[in-house]
Amino acid sequence: MGLFETEVLTQPENLSAVMDLCGQWIHTVHQRKAIREIILDLDSSVSETYGEQEGSAYNGHFGCTCYHPLFCFNQFGDLERVLLRNGNVASAEDWRSVLEPVVDRYRPLDIRRFFRGDAAFARPGVYEYLEEERFLYAVRLPANAVLYREVEPLLTRPVGRPSNKPVVWYHDFRYQAGSWDKPRGVVAKIEHHKGPGAPGLREKLIKIGAKVVTHARYVIFQMAEVAVPKRLFRAILERIGRLRLPQAVPG
Q: Residue 172: what are its φ and ψ, rounded to 5°?
């Protein structure tokens, strides 16, 4: 690629057009196959860098020098929009520039609208925007003393012999943080597991989002390369294979 082509691609209007490509393809698909609802998922990720790339910086959360892109996916695993950001920005930085164009595209459709996000997007501005756009949303709240007091009666382990399966309780209530303009609904999930502590590293390790593509003779798990390196994923599959019961030898 020549210098002129590189300079053309870095122009703001051209960068914006590239960012909109995913949305245009999805819009074309939805024109052929209508949908009844849309679920948008906003999340950041890490893209490690190994040189002096402009905008790369050390990120303490990921423990590496990287870019910190922001992604918006739908419930089908399709990428709606993405923004490449400097490595040291906060997880929710520039969320409007990613979410608003996607919401604008779905506004004319008569469909149900949902949004989900992690604790990085627990901001009054996010809530107010989603409510104005008639989105139902689920955003994880950072824990605090007020929330703990609300669920305190449910934190005691059930009496009697512990179950092998986790005991799961739900509790919903109204809550208003100091920075909120009104109370909002909160749903708490409390899990009690057999033995001390939460689920072990084995369960946490393989709880990673992926898109499953099924073919006639094989199944493909599509996931971010940075989530689980190939060597580690291969080792996990090998260990799972060892858990199979040996076949009985005929007498």
A: -115, 145
